[in-house]
Amino acid sequence: MRSILVELAGKHGFTFSLDVMPITVAALMTPRWIRRHLEVPASATHVVVPGYCETGIGELEESLDIPILVGPKDCRALPEWFGGKSEPIKLEDHDIEIVAELNHAPRRSIDEIICAAKRLAGAGADIVDFGCDPSKRCSTIADYIKALVDNGIKVSVDTFDPWEAAQATRHGASLVLSVNSTNREQSVDWGTEVVVIPDAPGNDRSFEETIDYLTERNVPHRLDPILEPIGTGFMDSLLRYSQTRRRYPKHNMLMGIGNLTELTDVDSAGVNMILMSICQELGIRSVLTTQVINWSKSAVKECDLARRLTYHSVKHGIPPKRLSNQLVLLRDAKLLPYPREAIEDLAKTLKDNNYRIFAQDEELHLLSAGVHLQDCDPFRLFDRLMQQEISSNVDAGHAFYLGFELAKASIALQLGKQYEQDQALNWGYLTVEEDHHRIKRTSRHRKKDN
Q1: Which of 23, 50, 160, 229 lies 20 to 30 Å (CA to CA) from residue 263?
Q2: Residue 196 backbone phi and psi in degrees, to 5
Q3: Which CATH superfamily is domain 97-316 in?
Q4: Which residues contact 281 (CB under 8 A, 6 or more apart)?
């Protein structure tokens, strides 16, 4: 802490004093407790307290008669904090529409479809696509579409069956996927927008003929040259989107990105980010996605985050870096390791039996009064702990807690993530915050002991 402050003071031109409180868990400090133990120098203009001391600051300011600033929870974040925390960029704007398909929708009940559609809309879908079964006509499609529309959901229908398309559009569907030479004549009577595709991927002649046919008859449409999976012409199909944009600069376009995310054995977040970037730069203003396979089960949310990032990047001419960490899922954007000397010094000064866990430099560290164990294997680490005299302090609750925290720490080491004791690992937008179980437990024990 002192070494960090010395560097900051030299950089920003201030003087400081450092008061070490007689407590080893910062989160247990209350304003009343701080007031009893803190000695504020007469020359001080501000007092900075750790980020865990968030409540009762007004009371503390009034008592000490000096402005109180709540710093970061981690002293290693002080350089950023002193540099002035910039307001997070609000990534609210976007101009790409997400069409989220419910595959084989007729196989589910109307109630199930409505629940699934609401989940997709909640994740960011602008249109829910009712995916028909190509092997069997859905005789009750009107009931499905009407129920969705009545629930305030904007609906498209995915079918080549003219009868299904006519029924769906008559009851509220606002878009039909898709139209080519086989059903373009009937599309004139639907009175709604359609998506144009070639009769086969790369068949430019059929594509152009259908576009001309619909244009002459004033049928609103958007163009989809068809994105093909890797191994079946992916790059050529990607180029066709660029060529289509040049040939039809004023037409609306759609890209069916599910063909790549669903048919590639890779987590979909990064793939969706790249595809949304391509759409943003080419002016493709709608994408069709789905989230059937497990590695793409949150594809709609990923697309929603990606369209905001790419919109901001293209608008301002900057890379999508340091704008948001919501799509950084597997590894963390930045690690903040402690100096090894700091861990060793802490181990020498601890006087209580509360356990501190650190994970860095490919090792796990377990610290307590008179104990500093380190190993890359959490099982060996725990075995060594049980050989210590302090092992009598490890009851079932302690063992469970240590196992839980060491498991998180091991995952952090394996993946290159930042581990902070009693805090959830950062999984981007998938992060589920944890309660501070150890801190609460320690507090209860202290109250009981007192």
Answers
A1: 160
A2: -95, 130
A3: Dihydropteroate synthase-like (3.20.20.20)
A4: 314
Using CA atoms, how far apart are residues 35 and 157, in angstroms rounded to an integer? Answer: 66
Inter-residue contact 209 to 181 (CB < 8 Å): yes
Q: How many residues does the chain have?
A: 450
User: Binning pLDDT at 50, 70 and 90, where does residue 449 land?
Assistant: very low
* H helix runs in 233-284, sequence order: 234-247, 258-261, 268-282
Short-list 208, 138, 203, 213, CA closest to 183 = 213
Compute how many other C-beta atoms are within 10 angstroms of the C-beta atom of residue 427.
Answer: 14
Burial (CB count within 10 angstroms: exposed 0-12, middle 13-18, buried 19+), residue 88: exposed
Give the tens place of pLDDT for each residue, 251-263. 999 999 999 999 9
**166 vs 159: CA distance, rounded Å:** 10
User: Is residue 111 within 8 Å of 139, Cβ to Cβ?
Assistant: no
pLDDT of residue 80: 82
Residue 443's pLDDT is what?
Answer: 41
Q: What is the pTM of this model?
A: 0.80
Residue 330, SS3? coil
Contacts 24+ apart (CB under 8 A), 20-24: 24/350, 24/351, 24/352, 24/354
Delimit the domains of the chain by residue range: 2-82, 97-316, 340-449
Strand ranges across the sheet with 363-368 = 356-360, 363-368, 371-375
Query: What is the model's pLDDT at position 354?
Result: 84
Alpha-carbon distances, residue 385 vs 37, 381, 396 (angstroms): 34, 6, 14
The per-residue pLDDT for 369 is 87
pLDDT at 177 exceeding the cut of 50: yes
**In this structure, are residues 253 and 284 in contact, taking their beta carbons and an 8 Å threshold?**
yes
Where is 223: in which H helix or E strand? strand 221-223
Tens digits of per-residue pLDDT, 184-202? 999 999 999 999 999 999 9
Please give the torsion angle defined by the CA atoms of residues 170, 176, 180 and 184, in that order, rounded to the nearest 10 degrees: 20
- Supply the mean pLDDT for the chain: 90
